[in-house]
């Protein structure tokens, strides 16, 4: 690659096969002059906004950027895992009834609790196995409590892993962090 800067420090990169005439025409088209710069100067400007960083400083910054990108990818992965696990929460009541415990189900449970007039009135409910069952307000409260507890455990785990990722200082440390 051939690298140039114009009079406003705008950077231009051309394939090695591009002739000087074409490069001059681009400069003319943009009503500017080009000054050729080295690859090191190009990387320095790209990473730091200045042209005078050393090759060692550039390599260090590139490694930092790579670590930051890997950290962000790991955080995205654990965030998606958190979401997937919350969406798959299944709760078992003390009487053995199984219910979905994801966030939408928790909202429906909460509305049902608020809609029931007393502890003995029942409501028809679709359980985890898609069977219609009857539930009372105390059973719904138990379900909501258990779903909330399961969700809290998932979020606590997410926060622990996110903290580990943010504290990691090497790519190997980041890659070693897994949701178990």
List keywords for this structure.
180 residues; Helix Hairpins; 3-stranded antiparallel sheet; two-stranded antiparallel ribbon; 6 helices; elongated
> For the CA atoms, what is the radius of gyration?
29 Å
Distance between the termini: 45 Å
Enumerate how many helices there are, as a single number. 6
Instruction: Return residue spans where pLDDT drops below 50 for at least 5 consecutive residues.
Output: none
Task: Report the helical percentage.
Answer: 55-70%
Q: What is the second-level CATH architecture of the largest domain?
A: Orthogonal Bundle
Number of domains: 2
Strand content: 15-25%
User: Structural class of the helix and strand makeup?
Assistant: alpha+beta
Q: Topology as H/E string? A: EEHEHHEEHEEHH
**CATH fold assignment of the largest domain:** Helix Hairpins
Instruction: List how many beta strands DSSP finds.
Output: 7
CATH class descriptor of the largest domain: Mainly Alpha
Spatial strand sequence of the major β-sheet = 2-1-3
What does the overall shape look like?
A: elongated
Mean pLDDT: 94
Q: Largest sheet at a glance?
A: 3 strands, antiparallel
